[in-house]
Amino acid sequence: MRLKAVELHNFRGYREFKLKFAPLTSLLGEGEVGKKTILRALDIFFNGSLAKRPLKLQDLNEKALKAGDWEIAITCYFEDFAVKKSFDLRQYLEETDSFAENGGDFQLVDDQNRGYYRSLLARMPMYVFFDEESSASSPLNFVVRSAIRDKQAEIKEIQDYLDDRLGRNLSQLLANYRDLGAPAPQFVFQNPDLAEMIKQQEKVSVTSRGKAGSVILAFLLAQSENASIDNVVYAFEASSLSAEEEALLAQAVLKLVAKNKQVILIPRTPHLMGLLPLEGTKIIKKVAGKQQLLSDNQVLAEASSNLGLAPSQQAGRSRCVLLVEGQEDVRFVTKINQWMYEAGMVDATFAEKGLFILPVGGCGSLLAWLNFDLFSKLNEPWFILIDSDKGTPEAKQSQRHLHRIRAKYPEMQAHIHATFKREIENYLVFKEGKKKLVFEPYEDVKQHMYDLMQKRHQSWSKDKTASKLMEEMQLPDLQDYYQKDGQTHRELVEYFLQIDHFIDKS
């Protein structure tokens, strides 16, 4: 049973808000816009007091409080029915449920329709929600809940059998007391719920807390392989994962969706966004203090801004765009180009010729650019200079991402360049007086320099490694030489000359 939509009334930052879900829904938006609030509202709707954060008086929307509207309502729409759960804060969160079928009017649950209402609840999916607070035991406790749900009929049968057997024995016991002429004791029964007893008995605990991101990843990988739990919505916040782990997460999510499972997630990095399909992406934006859901047409424009393509960033007279990873790469390109100008290799700098250098992140971000078709929105010729990450676990993944970009834009093959070495820092040297330290092609230069300075009891910022090293360098120090067909070439110098000649001809 698929969850089609949720509607929130007076819940936290949402006064009135409705969101439709796809089989795979990605929630995007600025940090405090309320993405996780939606996942928490669903947790309360499906799991009630067992939710990670059960409903509290403080969850009432501030504007609703000022207006004297004391009701919080969460409504979920399914394929042929909807369920609304309303909570009256004046009555200490007293819950009132109602339901509607096939788009009809909602009717309150009463004694007459309660049995039918319970049959609708039995058709709803289970909802499992993971975030940074999730412990390693959370997935296993969910498995216990799902097993109890799947065996509900058998559990009820055992419960009825126990009640019947206990009742017959109690009747016989009381009759025996009467026959003996002895006063019968007063028996008080707690009437325990067998399912709840099993749930408590099988509750899983752990002695140490694992990283939440790893907990989520391990669980989803297991679920994607066996997919043994039916009728479930997986909801989670994807954070604190490496690029390689994000790739595994994306694969697991897509496998789950292919097996008719439903997934709602909050991707935290452009890299993960790039690994997921655009369909089902929802962007929430706060306008004048109110959350608004962008239309499908607006999603691309907003994604452009989120991924680094804001109109204000474009140089007014730019004639060409060079996409790089970060600000250090901008400084790296600018410095080498300045050296080339001082050496008379070019007649003007990139800035003077109208090249706009745009930092967009690594290969994962570029893949997001591909999925959102942002290259076509540049309106100018473009080049890409990206770290190859050779010698790292991310290298193969980076190659696959670049292959997809080249396949989509075959005419731009010569414009796309991945470094021959690991990253830009591997082309630099550490000069100290007359000494020069040359780095290996695939070593971690940032870590090398940090460790070296630690031994000397000197500070060193890994993120500023390129800038620091280039302060003492000149163009001949740049380690971009390589041999081809018996001739010496310069990898980066020749690539920048290619860009320079392209601008001159355009």
From TrEMBL:
<dbReference type="Pfam" id="PF20469">
    <property type="entry name" value="OLD-like_TOPRIM"/>
</dbReference>
<feature type="domain" description="OLD protein-like TOPRIM">
    <location>
        <begin position="318"/>
        <end position="389"/>
    </location>
</feature>
<dbReference type="InterPro" id="IPR027417">
    <property type="entry name" value="P-loop_NTPase"/>
</dbReference>
<dbReference type="InterPro" id="IPR034139">
    <property type="entry name" value="TOPRIM_OLD"/>
</dbReference>
<dbReference type="Pfam" id="PF13175">
    <property type="entry name" value="AAA_15"/>
</dbReference>
<dbReference type="InterPro" id="IPR051396">
    <property type="entry name" value="Bact_Antivir_Def_Nuclease"/>
</dbReference>
<dbReference type="InterPro" id="IPR041685">
    <property type="entry name" value="AAA_GajA/Old/RecF-like"/>
</dbReference>
<feature type="domain" description="Endonuclease GajA/Old nuclease/RecF-like AAA">
    <location>
        <begin position="1"/>
        <end position="92"/>
    </location>
</feature>
<protein>
    <recommendedName>
        <fullName>ATP-dependent endonuclease</fullName>
    </recommendedName>
</protein>
